[in-house]
Amino acid sequence: MRWLRTGSLLLLPAALLCIAAFGIADSSGSVFCNPTVYKRLNSLRVARHCFGLETPVPVAKDELESGIAVRSRQDLVTVRRRLIEYLWERPGLPLDRLPTSVQTGIDDSLFDDMDNLEHIDQLEIELEFGFLARAYHFLPRRGNGQLAIYHAGHDGSFRSTARATLDALLGKGFGILAFDMPMQGVNGWPERLAVPGGGTLPLDGGSHWDLGFLESEGFAPLRLFMDPLLRAVNHVQARFAYQHIIMLGLSGGGWTTTVYAALDPRISRAYPVAGTLPRALHRPHPVTGRYSSAGDYEQRVPAFYSIAGYLDLYVLGAAGQGRRELQVVNRYDPCCFFGSEALLYEPMVGRALEEIGLGGSFRVFVDDTHLEHAISPAALARIIEDALEADAESDEGLPL
After folding, report:
1. Which SUPFAM superfamilies does this one have (predicted)?
2. Residue 309, SS3?
3. What is the tens place of the pLDDT at every residue in 345-385?
4. Which domains, from first to last, does the chain contain?
């Protein structure tokens, strides 16, 4: 176990206890990759060792790059139009859709002590089949002219899981629109789902799979994810003088960021964290054996992804003058989209953007500073720095 001898002596007592409990390690030190041992040690050094034992994904680069279909301006227009038609049944973004109601200056004691907070507005957005989306609009006392959309994932509400992120953004002068996923947090949803032509069934709030029963000729369930964002962006564009809109999200919120930035070019900078990975690059976790991500309903909708796969969504989310997408992948994520395979397609997406010729950039940041399924302090600092740097580079403002 040469790798351990060169490491911190602080690991030694815990390592000896784990070896006593789980057996003597072989020369590779693989006992430390036992899920229980790995979790107990909670060490970046151990993570580097265990991930170093993994088998690379057997995928040909040419085959991966051939999955990018959006390579011209016409491709960009056509594919985005088809995605919008799938979701809203019209060829362009429905810019006339607005929140159902807006309550100004709500009282939420969880945020009373936020620095630089002027007040919070709550947007309510009534959706099909009895679903209700709510968003908080945090307005800063001293703003920097940018709006940051933050989208939480499957692990709960932004009210309980994203305080550090919200504090950091507000502290730097960003206005914030904060969202939860459907059937999470501040949102509302029916106890039973009325299935077209199929009666009703109880709705499991912990999963989105039941939404698939709502798919019909006239309704795409993915609209429940995208329509609240569209209507909120329409609202802030009409009422506030933001020069740029950035978007970030974790996990399911990272998926939402990827997809919505592809649909709406008003999102000038997108920062999805631990949200997506092309399926060809999925593999078992080297410690837990969990597959890279089984994915919820929204990640497995053939009718949508037959129009644009993830690589095309990355191109759509980054293409355009002044636009950029920085995808954050947690190297040692215990949940989803771990590893560094995203670096394989970073230059491929970049080449597609060059072929399109409208500007824009796509980059990948592999975050190896932590072991969590989270937006780390390092990633958050990188995101904020990038957004402020981009703002200094451009005064073009939002596209029409």
Report:
1. alpha/beta-Hydrolases (SSF53474)
2. coil
3. 999 999 999 999 999 999 999 999 999 999 999 999 999 99
4. 2-52 (no CATH), 61-393 (3.40.50.1820)
